[in-house]
Each structure stands twice: as structure tokens, then as C-alpha cells.
Amino acid sequence: MKIALLQFAPDVGTVQANIKKADQLLQQSKLPLDLDWLILPEMAFSVGYPERTTDPTPINYNSTVTVSPGGTILANYRKSFLYYTDETWAAEPSDRFSITTLGSLGPVIQGICMDINPYRFTAPWSDYEFATAALQPAPFPQGPNANMSLGQRPSEYPNPHNPVTLPTPGGKNDHESGGGTASNNPLIVLSMAWLSYLTPSEIAGESSSPDVATVAYWVERFQPIVERSKQEPGKPWYVVLSNRCGIEKSVCYAGSSTVVKIESGDVTLFETCGRGEEKIIVIDLDSAPKFSVKSGR
């Protein structure tokens, strides 16, 4: 399975300019034609995707949407744990994290940034709410399109050459993709706008180096999965973390987008973006990770 992460620094309010920048990065990167999924950061285009319902009394959510090459909406996820800035405009959904089966990608659990933290920073650290949800049994696919590729409508075979600007899986059939990860553990995917404690000068001085403290924190928030992997050797887990970079007023973002592999208690990283880099990385989950990470225990 091949996954691309687009890390960039959008400017607040300049939606069309941000879309143009993302398109330019995509065109320059020469994405493989057999790409399965392109993941963007949280609020990648500055004001979107803030979902607004069509209820008589509309409700706002901080959401991500998964779109096929043909423009079909395949999944809509609403952020469950709101950061304090989200609480000024968005509501918590009634349902929290869940695993869904998304065609050829198999079981997937999606989250947004704050979702991996303790609820409102007041829940016990050891609750690990998001990671614990990922450990629940995956649902059995149901319905007429349960075995359909993510990039495929009924009676439609998508064109993998289509340009994309939203998180978009590619157009392979199930027998070509293998139906998710080899272990059939849920693929964990997070869109993020994660802040850094580094100063602007520290980020600019080593923009191509990841924010190590941030990556270590992300890994620690998946400690229950590290422990489970010790009990089930040879069944890897993959955590996809697509973060934004850049500086917004006095706020610095951590960048450092990466994919984490957790297997038999070992934690490794594939290619990782720098803390200040605007770039796209493509990760083949069948390839060997590049870095070893010591987990929290």
C-alpha cells in the first residue's frame, strides 16, 4: 500500500492561494500512479473543512472528508476531542472514534490532531482513548459495495491519472491492493495542525530536521498498541500522521509528518518531513522503515 502525505504551510484566509500551492506541490512531486491515499493536514485550506449541517438549527464540526478521484465522498469524520480554539465554533459529535471498512484499504480509523490527547487534557493520561478505540475489533464489511475499491463507484472504474487536491485514494481493484494492510489491523490515519514548542528561529535554523520531541509524544500516545503488538508478533500496525508546518502569527507548527510502524513491540519510522519543510513524501508500507524509535516503556 502506498500513502502520500502533503505537508505545507497554508496562510489564513487565502483559500484559493492555498489550493494553488497544494496543487503545485503535487505536480512537482510526480506521485506514483498506483498511489492508494493522499492525506492532507487538518484545515489544510485555511477555512476548510469546517462542516455545517443542514439541520433547522445548523451545527458546525471540525471534519475531514475522504474523496474518490471521481469526486465521490467516501467517508466523513468529525473531530471528537476539540482543542480550545475549536470550541469557539465547533461542536463535539455524539459518537466518538470508530473503525470503518473502506474498500480496498480495509479497516481504517481516522482522527484529527487533538483526538490523540487525553480528553480536554483532563482525562487520565493512561486512558489512551483514541489508541484504545483502534484496538477494538474491526467491523465486518456489509452492503453491496463492501468489496469495492475506495476509488470506485458502482459500475465505475476510476482513472488513477486524475489530478487530486483532497485526501484521495487511488483506483486499484481489491485483488490488486490486497485489501488493506497485511496484518488486517486497522490503518490509523490522522490529519493534524499540531503545534511546536520550538521558536521560529529554531524551526528556521533546522527546517529539514523533524521536531523530535513532537514525534516522541505522538509515539507515546499509541503505547497501548505497542503493548498489543508484543502479544501479536508479526502483525504490524501503521500510524499515518499528516501535519502542517509554518508560522501563523506567533504560533509555530511542528511539521514532522511521518508514518509509524509498530510491530512486536518495536517502533520504527518511514521517511519523515522536517519541522519546516513544505513537501510531499510517499510511503510504501511494504518497504523497510528508516529509523528506530524507543517507545516510552
TrEMBL record:
Membrane-crossing segments per the record: none
Name of this protein: CN hydrolase domain-containing protein
Biological process (GO), any one: protein catabolic process
Gene Ontology molecular function: any one: protein-N-terminal glutamine amidohydrolase activity
Domain CN hydrolase residues, every copy: 1-287
Protein source organism: Pseudopithomyces chartarum
Spans annotated as Disordered: 141-182
InterPro entries: C-N_Hydrolase, C-N_Hydrolase_sf, Nta1
Coiled coil: none
